[in-house]
Design brief:
Structural class: mainly alpha
Shape: elongated
Distance between the termini: 126 Å
Region (Disordered): 1-55
Radius of gyration: 39 Å
Number of strands: 0
GO molecular function, one term: DNA binding
DNA-binding region: 77-96
CATH architecture of the largest domain: Orthogonal Bundle
Helix content: 55-70%
Pfam family, one: TetR_C_31
Number of domains: 2
CATH topology of the largest domain: Tetracycline Repressor, domain 2
Number of helices: 12
CATH superfamily of the largest domain: Tetracycline Repressor, domain 2
Biased composition (Low complexity): 9-55
Largest sheet: none
Order of helices and strands: HHHHHHHHHHHH
């Protein structure tokens, strides 16, 4: 009789070769498995640099201008500057030994701040009278509407300079950065007398600043367009060209 083959049973244990292969494949976990999950800390970004603290000289200069604007020349003393700047007594005297030196510190700081407001290197670049009028009006309006305390300091120091020859020289030297670009502008615009015409522009601007800061027009600051029109009229009269 023919023999019947017995079908393989489900769940039959694997052969020895299969068992040894399985053992070999799973006997040793991989290095990554042994080390576990990656616990490497993410790289930290460098902290943002903090703005540098004001220097002691800067604190003294700013405090001196603040006192000039609030109290006038009589209120500017070494002790008052120390108190206003929050510095130990004697700090201002160590920085500026004399009153003359303290005033020069104030003039120097005033010139720096005015240069930021007026920006002569940026605004006095157009040789076209119309462009020159627009630039001058923009700078003047920015000064009149946002820096009136600086104007008060300017007048306090200018008056004091009339009584102190050394300060007068220092004050005039600090103001040269504004006069020289203006003379160059008048030359480029075709002025036959650039020095005299520059003086006329300075006188117009100074008069406007005084009238609107401490004079009879202090409550009626002109608009930028009004300043531009006035400056254009002045340039047109001097240069004989159409400006504005």
């Amino acid at each position: 009789m023919p023999t019947r083959s017995t079908p393989p049973r489900s769940g039959t244990a694997p052969s020895g070769a299969a068992r040894s292969g399985a053992a070999r494949s799973g006997a040793a976990p991989s290095r990554a498995a042994r080390s576990g999950p990656d616990r490497t800390a993410p790289a930290q970004s460098a902290p943002e640099a903090r703005p540098a603290a004001p220097s002691r000289a800067g604190l003294i200069a700013d405090a001196a201008l603040a006192l000039l604007a609030e109290r006038g020349m009589r209120g500017l003393t070494h002790r008052a500057v120390d108190e206003r700047a929050g510095l130990p007594q004697g700090s201002t005297s160590n920085h500026a030994r004399t009153r003359e030196a303290l005033l020069e510190t104030a003039v120097r700081r005033l010139a720096e701040l005015e240069a930021r407001v007026l920006a002569p290197g940026e605004l006095l670049t157009s040789s076209d009278p119309e462009g020159a009028a627009a630039g001058l009006a923009r700078a003047l309006h920015r000064y009149l509407t946002g820096s009136t305390d600086l104007l008060v300091c300017r007048y306090e120091l200018a008056l004091e300079a009339t009584r102190r020859p050394a300060l007068r020289t220092f004050y005039d030297e600090a103001g040269r950065r504004f006069r020289e670009p203006l003379v160059a502008l008048m030359t480029a615009a075709g002025s036959a007398e650039p020095e005299r015409h520059a003086l006329s522009v300075v006188a117009w601007a100074e008069g406007m600043m005084f009238a609107c800061a401490v004079g009879s027009y202090h409550r009626a600051v002109p608009t930028e367009q009004e300043l531009r029109t006035g400056c254009a009229e002045l340039l047109r009269g001097m240069l004989g060209t159409r400006a504005g």
